[in-house]
Amino acid sequence: MIPFNTPPVTGDEMYYIQEAIANGKLSGDGPFTKACQTWLEETFNTTKAYLTPSCTHALEMAAMLVEIEPGDEVIMPSYTFVSTANAFVLRGARIVFVDIRPDTMNIDETKIEAAVTERTKAIVPVHYAGTACEMDTIMDIAKRHNLHVIEDAAQGVMSTYKGRALGTIGDYGCLSFHDTKNYTSGEGGALLLNRPDKQEQAEIIREKGTDRSRFLRGQVDKYSWVDAGSSYLPAELNAAYLYAQLQHAQAINNDRLASWEMYAKALRPLEEEGLLKRPKVPAECKHNAHMFFIKTAGIKERTALVNWLKEAGITTAFHYVPLHSSAAGRRFGRFHGTDRWTTGESERLLRLPMFYGLQQDQIEEITEQVRGFYK
């Protein structure tokens, strides 16, 4: 059997977990949490990084920081995970979905401005598969309409757009360290804060609405409840596991990129024959090989290929059912414009196994089976 995903293990995880236990600090904001945050800040050149229990929580924090209120509208692609929308729905927002680009599966930047109304509060670009959205255009729209930009960079750790790390271009960036991601703490995430003026508010929200951080810095003699907030601190054991990943971040990235390139080379002839499509990465983007997907002719062919590979012991996965087609999507949002690509492209896409440590012979077996299917 070749699994679809295996969470990365570097070999240092148990050492750091044991150190965390020995430190006697297992709740949030211990030494490993702070070490991970420092690594993120220095590596990605962001004002401040806050580890969170998940990317979902990072998105919720961002929604609070931009002060989403009932009746506000938030623009995003429909082709994304439900957390992208839920974070804003929980604050009473109405979600406005727009179509995607078929080449990258990212939000179509040319469709955003027409969806802006007087109620629009934010744009949430989702960097699908670790390939950046067209951020210059998005930031220009946001600037002209005085909108917040919250990057859902759950899949984008170590990816860049014109040399800038994903998650550091908008006002806020939200990362994921779920065990399906390139770097993991089991469950986990981070909020990248690119607005220095929002740092105190972010601390308060993350500390359950208290000014505890100011107290720990000696700025107040006791801390108290000062605003709305929640518990957005991960456990120190999770941070210790993550720190072992971040210490090997480049090696993990290189390994995945090598696997991605092997897939791309092996499947190129099938694309040249018009039998499938491979991922497209714009020249200004450097991706992190979060996934390798192919596109079939349609949902029937994809289903047949899934079953073919399953018979060969190869586990694959398709991805999101577009949110606007779900019951909750219809209740909490609307699709602006025409769904030219979102549904159709989502039904074609199939994700092949991709994880740290995927072996060359495994990739050869997978691609040989794909070729066998099309023969």
Protein traits:
Aspartate Aminotransferase, domain 1; alpha/beta; 375 residues; Aspartate Aminotransferase, domain 2; 13 strands
Care to give the gist of this entry?
This protein is an alpha/beta fold. It has helices spanning 13-23, 31-44, 55-65, 82-89, 135-145, 199-206, 212-216, 236-246, 249-272, 299-311, 327-332, 342-346, 360-374, and strands at 48-52, 73-77, 94-98, 120-123, 148-152, 160-161, 164-165, 172-176, 189-193, 285-286, 292-295, 333-335, 349-352. The chain has 2 domains: 13-246, Aspartate Aminotransferase, domain 2 (3-Layer(aba) Sandwich), CATH 3.40.640.10; 249-374, Aspartate Aminotransferase, domain 1.
List the helices and strands and how they pair.
Elements: H1 13-23, H2 31-44, E1 48-52, H3 55-65, E2 73-77, H4 82-89, E3 94-98, E4 120-123, H5 135-145, E5 148-152, E6 160-161, E7 164-165, E8 172-176, E9 189-193, H6 199-206, H7 212-216, H8 236-246, H9 249-272, E10 285-286, E11 292-295, H10 299-311, H11 327-332, E12 333-335, H12 342-346, E13 349-352, H13 360-374
Parallel strand pairs: 2-3, 2-4, 3-12, 4-5, 5-8
Antiparallel strand pairs: 1-9, 6-7, 6-10, 8-9, 11-13
Helix pairs in contact: 1-8, 2-8, 3-4, 9-13
